[in-house]
């Protein structure tokens, strides 16, 4: 028997999530991973690297709870929000029996995590405006334990209608968890569902420090939920999920001063987003610029695959969304610096289509 044959059947056929770094490229304008464009400086203060870290570092938990407006007992910190996605499946879904559900086009890790753990995933395509198809979701809910809804949605950039969220939460009460993935919520904080946690005990919220906090390289995320859910997740999380340096920097980033700096970065990104949107609307190869509540914009472009390759060859790395349902002809552009925006504008303006 070969090593490959020893592996689980679903892993042998699994297509891994194609992260921005995994896709590669040799550019100097990286606008494909929704990262903050410039580094933020931190100084490490912890010198106890000979000791194992806390499972749930108190300073990080307390800081984030205060920022999010919840109790410390409602916060779990993990290796990015991606680990939170997987922990929920591990804690709530029986392989071969239960299912998760999500609504493409959306974030690719929901399917990858389910497949990796041998759990069925069901999809309900979003409506034409990328809002939830509530009736179709209701028709597929039997046996579903976890429903993932990304809002603002990646890669489309829009907020999910709050009233639709309420209908979904009522529909799933006592049946399944509803997970609101709020990775980009700092760019539209008024849309957060965190104030609904008390009303809906089966609501879970995912957050991250990778976007507005400018710490994608830190790999630190949060799960916000009622205490009963957090206690269950603590049973399946790794014993030491965050290294001491990660916890050290995360505590600084979520301090009052860190929150203030984050909000200043968000304001700058929103200004730059408007500049880029205005310019793109006047470029011949740009057919449509979709509204965005995030640090990226989705753009439909004439001959998008050729344009994507042309910019790639010029060292401008965007994210091709052509293979996503309903996103034919679409590229996703992260908001970068003014210089990076101008490189994109000039390159697209020079395209002959």
Walk me through this protein's architecture:
- With 353 residues, the protein is of the alpha/beta class.
- The chain is built from 13 helices and 13 strands.
- The strands form three sheets. A seven-stranded mixed sheet has the order 2-8-7-6-5-3-4, with helices on both faces. A four-stranded antiparallel sheet has the order 9-10-13-12.
- β3, α6 and β4 form a beta-alpha-beta unit.
- The longest helix has 25 residues.
- The chain is globular and about 55 Å long.
- 44% of the residues are buried.
- The model has no long low-confidence stretch (mean pLDDT 95).
Topology:
Elements: H1 3-6, H2 9-12, H3 20-23, E1 29-30, H4 58-68, E2 75-78, H5 80-92, E3 99-102, H6 109-116, E4 120-123, H7 134-139, E5 144-150, H8 162-172, E6 177-181, E7 203-208, E8 221-225, H9 227-236, H10 244-253, H11 256-280, E9 286-289, E10 296-301, H12 304-313, E11 316-317, E12 319-320, E13 330-334, H13 338-349
Parallel strand pairs: 1-11, 3-4, 3-5, 5-6, 6-7
Antiparallel strand pairs: 2-8, 7-8, 9-10, 10-13, 12-13
Helix pairs in contact: 4-10, 5-6, 5-9, 11-13
If you average the pLDDT, what whole number results?
Answer: 95
**Terminal CA distance:** 53 Å
- The portion of residues assigned to helices is 25-40%
What is the global morphology?
globular
Structural class: alpha/beta
């Amino acid at each position: 028997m070969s090593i490959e044959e020893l592996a689980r059947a679903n892993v042998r056929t699994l297509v891994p999530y194609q992260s921005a770094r995994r896709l590669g490229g040799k550019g100097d304008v990286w606008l494909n991973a929704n990262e903050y464009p410039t580094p933020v400086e931190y100084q490490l203060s912890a010198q106890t690297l000979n000791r194992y870290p806390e499972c749930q570092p108190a300073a990080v938990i307390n800081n984030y709870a205060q920022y999010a407006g919840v109790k410390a007992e409602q916060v779990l910190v993990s290796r990015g929000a991606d680990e939170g996605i997987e922990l929920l499946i591990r804690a709530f879904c029986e392989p071969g029996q239960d299912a998760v559900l999500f609504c493409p086009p959306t974030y690719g890790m929901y399917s990858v995590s389910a497949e990796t753990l041998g759990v069925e995933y069901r999809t309900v395509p979003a409506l034409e405006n990328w809002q939830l198809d509530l009736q179709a979701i209701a028709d597929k809910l039997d046996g579903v334990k976890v429903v993932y809804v990304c809002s603002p949605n990646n890669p489309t950039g829009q907020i999910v209608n709050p009233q639709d969220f309420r209908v979904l939460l009522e529909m799933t009460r006592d049946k399944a968890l509803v997970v609101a993935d709020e990775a980009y919520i700092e760019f539209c904080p008024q849309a957060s569902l965190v104030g609904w946690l008390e009303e809906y005990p089966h609501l879970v919220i995912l957050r991250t420090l990778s976007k507005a906090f400018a710490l994608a390289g830190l790999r630190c995320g949060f799960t916000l939920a009622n205490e009963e859910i957090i206690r269950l997740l603590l049973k399946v999380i790794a014993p030491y999920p965050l290294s001491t340096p990660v916890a050290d920097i995360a505590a600084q980033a979520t301090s009052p001063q860190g929150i203030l700096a984050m909000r200043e970065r968000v304001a700058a990104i929103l200004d730059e987003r408007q500049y880029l949107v205005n310019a793109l609307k006047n470029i011949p190869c740009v057919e449509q610029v979709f509204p965005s509540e995030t640090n990226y914009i989705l753009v439909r472009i004439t001959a998008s695959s050729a344009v994507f390759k042309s910019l790639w060859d010029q060292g401008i790395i965007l994210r091709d969304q052509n293979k996503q349902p309903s996103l034919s002809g679409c590229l996703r552009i992260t908001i970068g610096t003014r210089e990076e925006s101008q490189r994109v504008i000039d390159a697209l303006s020079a395209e002959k289509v």
